[in-house]
Amino acid sequence: xxxxxxxxxxxxxxxxxxxxxxxxxxxxxxxxxxxxxxxxxxxxxxxxxxxxxxxxxxxxxxxxxxxxxxxxxxxxxxxxxxxxxxxxxxxxxxxxxxxxxxxxxxxxxxxxxxxxxxxxxxxxxxxxxxxxxxxxxxxxxxxxxxxxxxxxxxxxxxxxxxxxxxxxxxxxxxxxxxxxxxxxxxxxxxxxxxxxxxxxxxxxxxxxxxxxxxxxxxxxxxxxxxxxxxxxxxxxxxxxxxxxxxxxxxxxxxxxxxxxxxxxxxxxxxxxxxxxxxxxxxxxxxxxxxxxxxxxxxxxxxxx
Length: 304
Prior knowledge:
Layout: E1 2-4, H1 6-12, H2 15-30, E2 35-44, E3 47-56, E4 61-70, E5 73-74, E6 77-82, E7 88-93, H3 95-112, E8 118-124, H4 128-140, E9 143-149, H5 153-167, E10 171-173, H6 176-182, E11 185-188, E12 207-210, H7 223-228, E13 231-234, H8 237-243, H9 245-248, E14 260-262, H10 263-269, E15 281-284, H11 289-303
Parallel strand pairs: 1-7, 8-9, 8-11, 9-10, 11-12, 12-15, 13-14, 13-15
Antiparallel strand pairs: 2-3, 3-4, 4-5, 4-6, 6-7
Helix pairs in contact: 2-3, 2-10, 2-11, 3-4, 3-11
């Protein structure tokens, strides 16, 4: 049985490869050629255990991602099986997979929403996912100016300095009000349980990728932003609406009225021709097993 380590994952993957793997996987899902196993969680304070997965017959695999959560820290593992024989193909240490696939899917969402350039970008958060997103997006677009909004001035400054030194990006430590007034593209990568800003203050052409939370009790985006959105992109509507606090905390009946579209349907229908001025668009990501299984299938083929 093959085992693929996090180090091997880093050696084999690129963000551009992951974007195309995800594009194909979500296209298959939208075409009823793949199925998603929704996330299941079991908790016994102070720990929890989560599982999710997918079946992707087009690439000959099915798989399950499992991970414990202890004191806010995760440890991800994907087990991959042959979708024809049921043979156990490999186990993949998936901490790096999670970082790659989350950022790559955000890039894909920006693309299918029709974002052509990134003259300004604000990132809320300074952790692993914030950095992964910056690496990924900066490889796809030339970022004119980056605003970093961390939980402290020190964290914002450190992240901005790293972005300047490592990626050559014009990065500044910023605040919420300044970021909202000077940026049009936003990534929220925090563990906040409360909205990060007043949605009424978002610029009219904003694109917001909210990727930091996947539990009903947490949300980064408020009701005002959700109601103003001309389009809300999700991975898979049943899981997104059940898990994301952005939906779960809305008054009863509001979610059904929102312009929600699955990213796979956007790919199928080639709706990416929209201009970046078509109103506020929100990508609300919770993470689905389809992303992990698609990328781990590639890793299995790569190392086999």
